[in-house]
Amino acid sequence: MRQLIEQAHASDIGDILESAIGGKRPSREDCQRLLESDQTYLIGLAAGHLARKRFGRRVSYVNNIILNYTNVCVTDCKFCAFYRPPGDDEAYTLTLDQIRARVKTAWDSFGIRQVLIQGGHNPNLPLEYYEDAFAMIRAEFPTVGVHALSASEIDMIARVSKSSTHEVLSRLKDSGMQSMPGAGAEILVDSVRDVISPKKITSSEWIDIMREAHSIGLKSSASMMYGHVETLGDIAEHFDRIAQLQEETGGFMAFIPWNFEPNHTDLAKEGTVTHGAGGARLLKMIAISRIMFDSMIPHLQSSWLTNGVGMAQLALAHGADDFGGTLIGEEVVSCTGSRSTELSTEAISSSIREMGYEPVERDNFYSCAESSP
Asked: Which 3 state secondary structure label does DSSP give 324?
């Protein structure tokens, strides 16, 4: 600790790191300075100290599946290789029986504790489709948590059903939805969204839907997709907007920064983005996320899905306290041809132990069981 303080004191960002270690949340201007700094190692030391102070050597993970229920989508996001337009030969939508079969197989084979439900913006699916699916899962698999739907999917369901997003969220909660992922945030700056996802909801609409979810007791995660057309100032604004909503509602359980994977996307085809952000950028974003949100949003995922297990292991020393999920059945990132997109609980536990940490299994509310084998 003393050595860390001494190194911070001698740095041009030392005032920020010393204040963060002392429990003071950095400002937006501080965030910009951290993003501009090349002292990733020192930022990582401070972030790792904060995470160990809060969690010790325990690192959580969730045994889950991703249920990508449809790839039909009308928002045509330039960063997505997964979606297919309505009527495409490769378009699909799972039936209720198919959803039941996938969850049952995962429960019987792996003993999952969560199903993460996300898909395209399908204009042909009524609200009742989701209500029936969530009610079935909660009735037939009561120990499996339903962590479902991005804010932008909620917006699409509201448009299809000619309802308010508040009514949609309320009905989905009543049918069995327990928490929400933070997908669809990308970068919460409309000039960025106008380039990468012009048909998707605006940044303010994402914030408003999350506020509504929190107001009725639906906890959620928040996310950030970096490494495309955003500037450092855009990232600082994203952090600030998440922090402002968290100060208001306290509804975010976790933050998940992940890098854009350009393969097979329109952004790559048009030459706007030619390569991924890389591992060094991941470690810096993880560390800054811990420093910015340590006193506000407790959990920080290590993003193994887009950066690989090795980088996710290093992220544990840079402020991450959660390894994410096993992600059985993942289809979105796998469409980029990135890498293996699922892990066993044994592989995650081993990866955590290899770094000198203690793996603990959690549920979708980040409640942990005893240590994993």
From this structure: strand
Residue 257 and residue 274: Cα distance in Å, rounded?
20
Q: Does domain 58-371 have CATH number 3.40.50.720?
A: no
CA distance 305 to 311: 10
How is residue 127 annotated by DSSP?
Answer: H
Give the span between the Cα atoms of 253 and 243, in whole angstroms: 12
Extract the residue ranges of the chain whose pLDDT is less than 70.
1-10, 78-79, 329-341, 369-373
In this prediction, residue 265 carries a pLDDT of 76
CA angle 223, 226, 229 (to 5 degrees): 135
Does an H or E element contain 115, and which?
strand 114-118
Spatial distance between the Cα atoms of 124 and 142, rounded to a whole number of angstroms = 28
| pTM value surpassing 0.85 | yes
Q: What are phi and psi of 327, to 5 degrees?
A: 60, 40
| pLDDT for 2 | 59
Token code pair at residue 147: 């962590």
